[in-house]
Amino acid sequence: MIEEPMSKPTKPASTRHKSSTEAVHSGRDPSASYGFVNPPVYRGSTVVFPTLDALTARDQPYTYGRRGTPTVSALQEAICKLEGGDATFLTASGLQAVTTSLLAFVEAGDHVLITDSVYQPTRHFCDTVLARLGVTTTYYDPCIGSDLAALITPQTRVVFTESPGSQTFEVQDIPAISEIARTHNLWHVTDNTWASPLYFDALAHGADVSIQAATKYIVGHADAMLGAITTNTRAKPQVLRMHGALGVCPGSEETYLGLRGLRTLPLRLERHFRSALEIASWLEARPEIERVLHPGLPNDPGHAIWKRDFTGASGLFSAVLTPAPREAVAAFVDSLEFFGMGYSWGGYESLILPFDPRSYRTATKWEYDGQALRFHIGLEDVDDLKTDLEAGFARFNAARQS
């Protein structure tokens, strides 16, 4: 009879290798899985203890399914290595990673500073749940830089950044904001989903917490919901307590899909980056486009900071159409062959999403009258995507002239 090996979390090595190497090798130990290269999917709630003493001391690596499994440990280790953090905690979605992180650092009477370009559900959480708990929020101009110091009050506890914003793509000066947070003994939490740890080292640039909506590029195939919170040593105890108190845990299958997706993240993200930059540059020359919002473009207002701090970009950016009737916009987007119209991003497929940020911006003003469109450029051939968009522009022009 073959004896099952003891399941225990692997310990990250002290050396931090190149991200493509970490993505392949971190979080897996074939010797613990009978030589299989992928960690198995552990499904379960109950974990049994061999003795009363072990139960009382909880003296074993795993004690209950909600508190972790070897599959969860494997993905946590791999993401933590990529982020260069002290600990990673998985959640059931990116939004849950955001909300758990914020709750970890605030209590009634506190104040948080949130970028005005933040993911809209994060804003909703601040305006509803945090407000009910007696936590006030000030939204600030994402381009404020070191002037953020003027908004800090004695009650301020957290500065939340998202760079670039996932709809309007303002690039924040993360090192300057991190320095302000340190000076005032604040927590700096950042949503780093757009660049991922491959293209922006959030903790090395001063953040205490780096959040990934792992649903996006880590999973990478539009087939699972998952989030990750990676902390430095200072922030780890607070997040650990709140993560446990809220009963946060990811699904077994979703965790495995995150592990699977992570192995090819460097290859996929490189393709998303190059294809999106090519499409963005191509759109800049189109007469139907008023402006392209992509920090990788040389004339973008955030380009200098992006070039200084980032090593790449993702497949997500926005563009603003020249003003036209709704019928013309519908003619453009409704019959696209390769661009699905829907929420989320980061999968292999291209997406397009019309949006209007005017109703949920308070510290800044959206200046454009034309329809804003968010593009996610997938893994399709770029020439096919251009052909699809060209046909859409032909429909757009015909509809606005009729």
UniProtKB/TrEMBL annotation:
GO MF annotation list: cysteine-S-conjugate beta-lyase activity; pyridoxal phosphate binding
EC numbers on record: 4.4.1.8
Cofactor dependence: pyridoxal 5'-phosphate
The reaction(s) this protein catalyses: L,L-cystathionine + H2O = L-homocysteine + pyruvate + NH4(+)
Record's keyword terms, sorted: Lyase, Pyridoxal phosphate
Annotated segments matching region Disordered: 1-32
Pfam families on file: Cys_Met_Meta_PP
Modified residues (N6-(pyridoxal phosphate)lysine): 216
InterPro entries: Cys/Met-Metab_PyrdxlP-dep_enz, Cys_b_lyase_bac, PyrdxlP-dep_Trfase, PyrdxlP-dep_Trfase_major, PyrdxlP-dep_Trfase_small
Keyword match Methyltransferase: no
Single biological process term from Gene Ontology: transsulfuration
PANTHER family referenced in this protein's UniProt entry, alphabetically: CYSTATHIONINE BETA-LYASE-RELATED
Family: Belongs to the trans-sulfuration enzymes family.
Protein name (Swiss-Prot/TrEMBL): Putative cystathionine beta-lyase
Organism the protein comes from: Candidatus Filomicrobium marinum
